[in-house]
From TrEMBL:
This is C-type lectin domain-containing protein. It comes from the Eukaryota. Residues 34-143 form the C-type lectin domain. Gene3D superfamilies: Mannose-Binding Protein A, subunit A (3.10.100.10). Keywords: Disulfide bond. It comes from Neolamprologus brichardi (Fairy cichlid). InterPro entries: C-type_lectin-like (IPR001304), C-type_lectin-like/link_sf (IPR016186), C-type_lectin_CS (IPR018378), CTDL_fold (IPR016187).
């Protein structure tokens, strides 16, 4: 008897949006702890808000980083020495998907207080995070996935690649 290996899972979220535009907030629920997301580096300099809009239009959203493994994946993806926008922002610090961060990787003396409400990962400083004013223009990283509009309903489909060490007991 052969048992197939599960290497990916799909997250599908449907919610009403009226009107449907790029200012929606999605919620993502992982099926397995330890799962990893796929990211894409965008070599296109934008403000944080324009980077978020770009990611939402072409992928899923600005990157949200849930653990050191994901931070390292982004570090491996981004050319050295630059700063890129990620999806964390100051509204009591949350990700663009509305979730609170369970992992942070702040540079020493960050975050600062004041008008620096958006976060960039600094790849000249070991991918440590810094807060910046949101109108600065930087490259950015998106979570890979697709969203589809179905006449006043938004269907968000995200495919996650599982880390090889994830315990898949009970997953059939």
């Amino acid at each position: 008897r052969h048992q197939a290996s599960l290497n990916y899972y799909v997250s599908i979220i449907i919610f009403k949006c009226d009107p449907c535009d790029e200012d929606y907030y999605s919620l993502e629920y992982g099926l397995f702890s330890g799962s990893t997301r796929t990211f894409v580096f965008i070599d296109n300099i934008q403000s944080w808000a324009n980077a978020r809009s770009y990611c939402r239009h072409h992928y899923t959203d600005l990157a949200s980083v849930r653990n050191m493994t994901e931070n390292q994946e982004i570090d491996d993806l981004v050319p050295p020495g630059i700063r890129v926008w990620i999806g964390l922002f100051r509204d009591s610090w949350k990700w663009t998907d509305g979730s609170k961060p369970s992992f942070t990787y702040w540079k020493t003396n960050e975050p600062t207080h004041g008008a620096e409400n958006c976060v960039a990962a600094n790849f000249g400083e070991n991918a440590k995070w810094e807060d910046w004013t949101c109108d600065w223009k930087k490259e950015f990283v998106c979570n890979v996935g697709k969203h589809y509009y179905l006449k006043h309903w938004l269907l968000l489909v995200t495919i996650y690649k599982l880390h090889p060490n994830v315990n898949r007991a009970g997953c059939r």
